[in-house]
């Protein structure tokens, strides 16, 4: 999965060298690029990596620091921000592969790929939890405060992460036991997944979760539309108490719409990657370069959407930049 394929590399036969010149008979070929092209690729990857880490760290600090922000929904957003932040670090590994050579060793290669899969699985699992959270809040509002708590959200998130790590370690156990076994030459990072393992992973890690997400959000959309019509027809005749209830319903509907946008953007960014993975005939071909770029950029877009839609995020960022969070009582600030 190389971001650098998005750019023209102007490779020629004469511009090909070896990744490890001392290993003449076993080294992979190294792609030589024009200095300006290489500079643009380095700067672009570095910028995306730093921006992704920085923006998601703001989300992590905001939710972890301010007690008023530690609601069940925000805990799920925290899990998503952690996975997106790790994606930012993973993007920086693409710099090491710009010339089609892997210099970090076979063990690091396997761990890197497994971590990539763990983050992907955790992100999709978090999206499922977000969909369930909004489904219960909109369709069963009376049960939401008692059934969906911050503690239960933390437990669910922790279970998803632990299961994701265990699942992918088992899935790639052969690669962990024999790192570099499937490399055709020195300097290659190739992790193999057999056909049945690939199909099972695709079903369990993408098709089934995405199906659940779509079904839940279709149900949420239907209920939101019906509630919006009901509120519109009765808004003129409600009492003060009714107005409070309407405001509460409006806030829940707004939250559902915002998180729905986050889910839709996630699906738009990830669907092309998994669709190409599904139709790829060669097990070594994971996806095209453009779909990989789109897949990674989703981690950068998420905190930007929070800044656009959530006032609490903008307020917390202001407090972070002005160093107000260093005050002893800053954790209790009401910024919602």
From TrEMBL:
Secretion signal, residue range per the UniProt entry: 1-15
Membrane protein topology class: Multi-pass membrane protein
Membrane-crossing residue ranges in chain numbering: 39-63, 75-96, 102-132, 153-173, 202-225, 255-280, 292-313
PROSITE patterns recorded: G_PROTEIN_RECEP_F1_1 (PS00237), G_PROTEIN_RECEP_F1_2 (PS50262)
Glycoprotein as UniProt keyword: no
Record's subcellular location: Cell membrane
GO molecular function, one term: trace-amine receptor activity
Coiled coil: none
Pfam families recorded: 7tm_1
Domain G-protein coupled receptors family 1 profile: 55-306
Keyword entries, A-Z: Cell membrane, G-protein coupled receptor, Membrane, Receptor, Signal, Transducer, Transmembrane, Transmembrane helix
Single GO cellular component term: plasma membrane
Classification via InterPro entries: GPCR_Rhodpsn, GPCR_Rhodpsn_7TM, TAAR
Family named by the database record: Belongs to the G-protein coupled receptor 1 family.
Name of the protein in question: Trace amine-associated receptor 13c-like
